Amino acid sequence: MLSVIAVLPQPPLLVPELTGGAAVETEALREACRDTAAALAEATRSWIVVGADSGGRRSVEPGTTGTFAGYGRDVPVVLPGGVGRVDDEGPRLPLPLLIAGWAAAGTGTDLRVRGELISPDASPADCLALGAELAATGAEDVGLLVVGDGAARHTATSPGGFDERAEAFDAVVAAALDAADPEPLAELDPELARELWAAGRAPWQVLAGAARAGGTWTGRLRHTSIPYGVAYHVATWHRS
Questions:
Q1: H/E/C letters for each residue in the chain?
Q2: Which among 199, 69, 53 has a CA at the least distance from the CA of 115?
Q3: How far apart are CA 214 and CA 196, in angstroms?
Q4: Is residue 185's pLDDT more than 80?
Q5: Which tens digit of pLDDT belongs to each residue from 144-173?
Q6: Quick one: angle between helices 95-107 and 27-43, nearest 10?
Q7: Among residues 132, 137, 215, which one has the least CA distance to residue 180?
Q8: pTM for this entry
Q9: How would residue 215 be classed by pLDDT, with cut points 50, 70 and 90?
Q10: Longest alpha-carbon distance in the chain
Q11: Which are the contacts of 227, defined by CB distance < 8 A and separation ≥ 6?
């Protein structure tokens, strides 16, 4: 049973070793991510991480290792909790799982972390179905960590340039995360999200499917900001 859901963004700039001068500018975001990961670790030692990856739907087992070498520095990462053989994906470990491993390590807690990846182009129906499937896990007190960014087109210097629709898109996401309301997330338009470079759309719709599967939730938007024109949201939901 899912007992708690956490939402983090996935910019490599969260990792101090990769940021250089940006470390101070983004410290509030980084602190919110650290606090959220710590709260998730306090609630449950078993995490399922959901992220989008161009490789499509697959599971990544605890014990898998990787590195941020593709983002400028060889900072190693492991999905904790593995036993026996270790799979080393190196720079190929997808960014959402690199961020999850970094966040897990920062808690200083003995965790078990499994990755569940979905295509960034997955249909809302497929995302919702995966969420319902994950919510039906037989283990008690499982936490869902959902990793993804908002629109990357908020300013002229954004990675995707400026798009006036980005503000409204992320306002909907932020309000839904704060209210623990899965319906606005379930209704996000995949084509609009693609045009806005919003990497979090598919993972957030997996979240919606999981939350819809049973129970009621209370939410808290811990942080939202738009450094460098990209929206980053941090939130927690607890089953009530």
A1: CEEEEEEECCCHHHCHHHHCCHHHHCHHHHHHHHHHHHHHHHHCCEEEEEEECCCCCEEECCCCEEECHHHCCCCEEECCCCCCCCCECHHHCCHHHHHHHHHHHHHCCCCEEEEEEECCCCCHHHHHHHHHHHHCCCCCCEEEEEECCCCCCCCCCCCCCCCCCHHHHHHHHHHHHHHCCHHHHHCCCHHHHHHCCCCCHHHHHHHHHHHHCCCCEEEEEEEEECHHHCCEEEEEEEEC
A2: 53
A3: 31
A4: yes
A5: 999 999 999 999 999 999 999 999 999 999
A6: 70
A7: 215
A8: 0.96
A9: confident
A10: 50
A11: 13, 22, 25, 26, 29
Name the amino acid, one letter, at 55. Answer: G
Residue that is written with structure tokens 């990497």 in the block:
199
Distances in whole angstroms, Cα of residue 225 to Cα of each of 30, 106, 149, 171:
11, 21, 11, 11
